[in-house]
Specification:
Belongs to the methyltransferase superfamily. L-isoaspartyl/D-aspartyl protein methyltransferase family. One of its GO terms (cellular component) is cytoplasm. One of its GO terms (molecular function) is rRNA (adenine-N6,N6-)-dimethyltransferase activity. This is Protein-L-isoaspartate O-methyltransferase. Keywords: Methyltransferase, S-adenosyl-L-methionine, Transferase. The structure is a single chain. The chain is an alpha/beta fold. It folds into two domains: 47 residues, no CATH class; 196 residues, 3-Layer(aba) Sandwich (Rossmann fold), CATH 3.40.50.150. Helix content is 23%, strand content 24%. It is built from seven helices and eleven strands.
Length: 265
Amino acid sequence: MNPDTGWIPDGDFRHCASLNACGSLRFAVESAGAYHFRPLFTLILPIMTIDLNLARENMIEQQIRPWEVLDPRVLDSFRAVPRDRFVPEAYRDVAYSDVAIPLGDGEHMMKPVVEGRVLQALDLAGSENVLEIGTGSGYLTACLATLAGRVTSVEINERLFNAARERLANRADSVTVLLADALAGFKPEQRFDAIVVTGAVAAIPKLFLDWLAPAGRLFAVRGQSPAMEAVLVTRVDGGSHRTDSLFETELGYLRGAEPKPVFAL
């Protein structure tokens, strides 16, 4: 190698080992003894594989925890449930990204940071009877099941219902998934210690509040974009309710709970 130019003379390939690790490198020298370097090569990049376990831990430490989700049980629920098994195959490599992954039919998963805030706000102790309105992928359902005693999840979309029920088959002892419309025809036989509404509502329906047990709490995102807020509604003495504002976010509407259209004259 010429120490002044760094070029390699004809036939001298001693310094090419590191380049050969990336691909094949050929040199054409136009005249003997002259230092002409004309690389003719095809760069073969290594096939990148996603370390899903590392991606899951990064999601917890770099997304969820910085959003003030600090409850160890909640963080452990994310470690216990592989999110990549609940997303459509086309999105598996971004399962742990800070995005609302599409599920089809206009439906999306919540972002991981929102799911973390949901679980922390409910403050589940392990014995609660939980209702989830909107099963979606079934991922949040599985996380709820690690924190509560029993989870009943209601899904209106038959395709999502079938897919989620299959994914949750190994949790049949603690999870029941029902194909039903929570706003029309669904009549639970008991009240619930916690209710999660996974789609936004223009206003929280009264019947959802009626399903709360004493001291029960309900998580929902209410309002209209761009002024939606996540709230926790707690049933207090006498059947009244206290509402605490948690944070601002954006969420697709629960079917049938969209704002009524306003016609201007």
